[in-house]
Each structure stands twice: as C-alpha cells, then as structure tokens.
Amino acid sequence: MIPLLQSLVDAVSAGAIYALAALGIGLVFGIMRLANLAHGEIITGSAYTLIFLWEFSWPLALIASAVVGVVIALAMNFAVFHWLRAQSPATLLIASFGLSILFQRLYDAAFGTNVRTAPVGSGLSQSIAMGGIRINILSVITIVLGVVLLIAVHLFLTRTSIGLQVKAASSDFRMARILGVRSGFVIAITFAISGLLAAAVAFALTTQSGAVGPTFGVQATLFGLVGAVLGGLSKLSGAVVGGFAVGVVLSLFTSWLPPWANDFRTALVYVFVIIALVVAPNGLLAGRSKKDRT
Amino acid sequence: MTERNPESMGESNRVLTVENLTVQYGGVPAVDGISFHVDAGELVGVIGPNGAGKSSTLLALVNAVRSSSQRLELSGASIAGKAPEYVARHGLALVTEGHHIFGELSVVDNLKLGRVARSSAAGLEEDMEWILGLFPILREFHSRSAGLLSGGQQQQLAIARALISSPQLLVLDEPSLGLSPTAVDTVFAAIEAVRQRGVAVLLVEQRAQQAVAAADRTHVLSEGRVTMTLTPSDASNSELLTKAYLGS
C-alpha cells in the first residue's frame, strides 16, 4: 500500500492548492457577489514575479510575488469592480471575464507566448524516505502552507474587528454600512487577501512546474471556482471544502486511472462535479445566499 | 453617552433637522416633502398606515435610499448625500425594521459590530454595563448564535448593538413588530431608559397609542406627508388616533 499513501499525500497537497484558490474566490464572492474569473491572472502575475526574481534572490522573489498579487488584486478592484459594485452578479462576472482576457494579452505582449522558466523551489522537489515510503517534500510544504493560510484567514475573520466587519458585510452589505462599516475599505481588504492567497497558489504551482505562461493561472482558477460552487459559494467553509475535494479527486484520478483513461481525467472531474450538483444544487455545504450591494 | 438636559430646547440643541425631504421610487413619491426635527433628549414618534413612507424616511436619513431635501442635518452638520457609514459614524444609529442581526455570528460578535461607529473607546465599559442592564438576556446568551435567538431577543440585540455606537440619535423602525407582549414591554422600557439617559430617539411605530403616549410629539404620516402632530395627551383619544390612521 506504499503507492496509496504517496498518492494520498499528493492528493491532499493538490486539494490544499485548490482550497486556497477557492477561498480567494469565495472571499471576494461573499462580499461582492463577484465570481472573479480574473483571479487566475493574479496568480499568473505572482508566478511571473517568482520566475523572474527567483535566481536573483528567492526571499525577495517570495515577498515580491506576494506584493504583486495584492497590488494586482487591488488594481482590479479600484479600476473596474469598484465602479460596478451596485451591478448584478452577471455584469460583474462578464467584467471579470474581460479583465481576465485583457491581462492574458498584457502578459503575452510583455513576456511572450512561450513559457518562462526558473528552478523555483528546486530544492523542495526531492523526496524523503520515511519508514520505507518516499514522501515528496514539496507536497508536505504545500499542505503546511495551505493549512497555515486557512487558519490565518479563519483567525482574521473571527478574531479581528476588521475581519468581523468583512463577515458582516458579506452577510448583509447594507446593514453593515448602516452600522458604520466602511464599504470601500472592507472590499479592498478582501481583494488584498484574495491577492495574497493567489500568490500562495502561484508559489505552490510554480514550484511544481517551474514554467509560467500567460494562461498559467486559468486552470487553478477554474478548478477553484468549480470547487467553490461545488461546496457552496455562499459559505466560505463550503468553498474551501469544495476546492479541496476537486483537488483531491483530480490528483487521485491522475495517479489511479489507467493510462488510456488518464486523458479524460479533467472531464471526469467535471462529471463528478455535475453529479454532486444534481444531488445538492446549492453546494455540498449550502448556506443562504443574498443580497444587493446598495 | 453624555447626560443632556432635556429641558433646554432650541436650535443649538437640535440633533436632527429634516426639511422638505422627498423620496421617490420610479417617479412615484413615497415621501413627499416632509419636515420635522428632533432635539437632544427628545423622543419623537412617527406613526401611520403601511405604505405611508415611514421606513423610506428613515432609510433616507442614512442615504440607504435616494432622496432630496432642503436640509438634512445631524447636530448642525449636513448628512445629505453622505454614505450610510458616514452617517453612522457621526452619531445616527438606525435599527431597521426586521432587526437585521447577523444570524451566523454570536451575540457578542454582533455587539462588537456596534463599536465600529463609535468615535471613542472612552466609556465603553460603562455603556456596555448599562446596555446589558437594559437587556439582561444578551448577557446570558452572549456566546450563542444570534440566529438562534427569538424575535424579541433579536430585537433587543439590534437595539443594544445600535446603542453601543453611543449615538446622539437612536432611530427605531417598528421595534415592536411581531414581538410578544412581554417583549414589547421590554423594548418600550428600554426606549424610555435611553431617552432618560439623554439620547434623542426617533421612533416609528405601528402601535399608535403606545407611541403617542411615550413620545414628546408624534407625527402622523399619510401618503408621504405629515398630516397631523399629536401630543401625549392625545394617546387616550382613540377617535383621533383612528382618524389619524384612516384619514379624515
């Protein structure tokens, strides 16, 4: 059963990545009713930063990629979403789709269509032997990173005044404002956190592949979004569990499916999601959803 | 919450000034040029049938609906067109109809949100003691999910949360709606205690008799206009109250 344990560690690690992606998307959705398709381009921006700076100085690369993630997320908010705040979720969704395409073209123009490479975290891609089985260090680090960030966001939302204001605004935007919650501020804070989470996803994915192209963040965002919908976008815990489930299933399919079926693993993930949504249309951990942004 | 002398009236004591306030929904006026004021330490009532424009008036005060007015001032400073959070941070606490507590948060976390609009932490503990004295049930259930409280308890929580912001003006939209008789008594007793403490109160109510009896004066709103202003001595005149509601 050695391969089973190894593939489980890999699966949990993949789950952690998509849980972080889903959390970043779910936070913004909670407060804005915006399913931000351009979340992937935040990931891509952070990933490019890692690639370009890694060999120069890895601590600088890590800090800079986090800063870039936060800056891109805030820029998207102030340049686009801030002005559309009172619009319907459909309008916001389409705007984010346009923004996503725009950023992909910008990356393409700036860095080329081909992938850029750097040995990001190359020291982490070794395996360590533990009692006869080999565990990938990178998988363990990804799991630790995911757990630490999930706990950090949880503590922020439940133990700090600003976090409480974010939760209140996510639950009932108008009432939160009537209580004095500064709407622009809590939205900006939420975007900043989603930018940080995107940078963490960028780090985990870049250490795996070492190569970044203009559409680097798209897949993680799609799976994160699908996971968030699967778990229930109206509840953050649902989004996290859903993102985790999608990552685990995707990873297990990759290791267990016979070679002839492996090309269909993404399609099979969607089949799994469709079945789950037919059974629980509002998400596996459905909460209530509402409200206008007035 | 500083003690104020309710006896000395006048412009300098004016907490809220509303002049010629109009709210329209799709060109139809819900509030049609009403004017009124609330002085420090006063309890001013607003009654009227459903659809008279009571809630729209209150939402207009915090700019949660679009409105126009000649004057909309809180303690002499204009709040016309200001964001709801600005108005809250400048001393107007609105408890909306249906109380709108955050059901998934604990009672304590709901109360903490009341501190957001508070200008200073000074005196917070005393205020908290006073507020929990008004609503002892909140102390008992402090760690419970607010959504699990009864309607009356949620209303108490909503009022308590508003009071923690240490407002100059507490605005209540039908606080007794859907409550049991005991809960109504608790709420009205709390409103009286708030006024005693020197906080001005603007009270919209369906319970006309109780509101008129409690308030220094009560404006009757009908089809978006103030049609009558009643004093506490009118509370026992049921004929007048019926007329106020049904129109002459």
Automatic annotation (TrEMBL), chain A:
Q: Family assignment?
A: Belongs to the binding-protein-dependent transport system permease family. LivHM subfamily.
Q: Which GO terms describe its biological process?
A: amino acid transport
Membrane topology of this protein: Multi-pass membrane protein
The answer on whether this UniProt entry bears the keyword Transferase reads no
Q: Which GO terms describe its molecular function?
A: transmembrane transporter activity
Q: Which Pfam families match?
A: BPD_transp_2
Keyword list, A-Z: Amino-acid transport, Cell membrane, Membrane, Transmembrane, Transmembrane helix, Transport
According to the record, the segments passing through the membrane are 12-30, 60-83, 135-158, 179-205, 211-233, 240-261, 267-287
Q: Can you tell which superkingdom this protein's organism belongs to?
A: Bacteria
Record localization: Cell membrane
Q: What is its main location?
A: membrane
Cellular component GO terms, alphabetically? plasma membrane
**Protein's name according to its UniProt entry:** Branched-chain amino acid transport system permease protein
From TrEMBL, chain B:
Superkingdom, taxonomy of origin: Bacteria
Keywords (alphabetical) are: Amino-acid transport, ATP-binding, Nucleotide-binding, Transport
The cross-references to CDD domains, in alphabetical order and at most eight, read: ABC_TM1139_LivF_branched (cd03224)
Q: Which InterPro entries does the annotation name?
A: AAA+_ATPase, ABC_transporter-like_ATP-bd, BCAA_Transport_ATP-bd_LivF, P-loop_NTPase
Q: Fetch the SUPFAM superfamilies from UniProt.
A: P-loop containing nucleoside triphosphate hydrolases
GO biological process terms on file: L-amino acid transport
So where does this one cross the membrane?
A: none
Annotated ABC transporter domain ranges read 16-248
Q: Mind listing the GO molecular function terms for this protein?
A: ATP binding; ATP hydrolysis activity; branched-chain amino acid transmembrane transporter activity
State a single Pfam family of this protein.
ABC_tran
| Family as reported in the entry's similarity comment | Belongs to the ABC transporter superfamily.
Supply the name of the protein: Branched-chain amino acid transport system ATP-binding protein
From what organism does this protein derive? Alpinimonas psychrophila
What broad taxonomic lineage does this protein's source fall under?
Answer: Bacteria, Bacillati, Actinomycetota, Actinomycetes, Micrococcales
